[in-house]
User: What shape does this take?
Amino acid sequence: MIWVEEIETLPRSGLESIQLKRLQALVHRVYATVLPYRAKMDAAGVKPSDILSLTDLRKLPYTTKDDLRDNYPFGLFATPMDDVIRVHASSGTTGKSTVVGYTAADIDLWASVMARCLTMAGVTRGDMVHNAYGYGLFTGGLGAHYGIEALGATVIPVSGGNSRRQITIMRDFGSTVLLSTPSYALNLADAMADVGVSPEELKLRVGIHGAEPWSQNMREEVERKLGIRAVDIYGLSEIIGPGVAMECLHSEHGMHILEDNFLPEIIDPDTLEPLPYGETGELVFTTLTKEAFPLIRYRTKDISRLFLEPCGCGRTLVRMEKVTGRTDDMLIIRGVNVFPSQVEHVLVGIEGVEPHYQIEVTREGNLDVMAVLVEVSDDIFSDEIKVLENLSKKIQAEIKDMLGVTCKVKLVEPRSIQRSEGKAQRVIDKRKL
Ligand code: DLL
Assistant: This one.
């Protein structure tokens, strides 16, 4: 069990003094080593020595995905590449992905925050942990993996896909903990029903689900269908990956943020003013302890609320409410982050299609299905069916290439997608999460 009691139950003043020391060290280091940060701080007229209290954090400029894109791939790294032992990547807003890096100490830190999260869900040595988050550039699989090992539990690095095999493994190996996106957990439950394996035949006790939004209803469905407790885990690649915040078994709602490492704020996304505890707005994080890829006031675009009410577990760490949405148009399709601008990027490069499109997202069973409606030009539209079929296959292949998501492509008549008078409505999300 990893439960850093002396930190997790500190009175707020003790925690805040640790945060301040770490913040000051971070700002000095970043100012000295990362040119784009120094330029932004100089432009804002703020020096590292101006950070005398946690409130002074507000003097520092925000960091956004645009900063990451402008400095792609490694321009915001704060250590020499020789010290970077791992990179991960997720979708950026256009063709460029968001690249993050870790030193050996960062990987240890990640394993420890992840182990602390698992502990909140009651996972201990002796547990058999079925890790169905995807392995690869996505941070889910490997991030959770190292945390499970650090805890001393047994990891089954099964990754995503091949549900029948997963069920066999869960039954035969006696998996006690399931790590997966909530939608994949439901998928596994349905696959179990299909192959006639009942939850009683498994030893599963708890599910740790995140990487995409899910509702209270979905939680109840996962719990009922798998006969487990299902808890929420939050994180994002930029901040570290999974392991930023986690629901404990006592919390009726809300996830404890590992605030000794990740300093949260809630801001009004329009005025950019910080909001007090209790108010809903955009979640912003500063990484206090990361070496290779530190971030100052990173705007996550996730909408949540922070609150300090005491929790039955005794932790004094602030909690964040379940993420209820985003301030931008990012979609999460089968766990993959998708920006409409990426689809647009693909379409503008293809001859014969107009820059008018719409993305329709539905859920068939528990699987997200993305359809892209694309207007074709007059010439193409009057062409033979074969030409249209080829065009549609080409669009599908290029979108798959860019996003890693298979979508349906529907070519539609010229001028048939409704023109808007203001902001185009690019996304119709029919999933009822
Ligand atoms: O999804 C990291 C992760 C992996 C978290 C496994 C939890 C479990 P990214 O691919 O960078 O990283 O996507 C981050 O996913 O900004 C949120 O919009 C969304 N997200 C992550 N966890 C949750 C959650 C991983 N529990 C983006 N509830 C974030 C709602 C979530 N949305």
Remarks:
- Residues 90, 133, 138-140, 210-213, 232-237, 241-242, 300, 302, 323, 326, 332, 337 surround DLL (CB under 6 Å).
- Residues 5-327 form a domain with the Rossmann fold fold (CATH 3.40.50.12780).
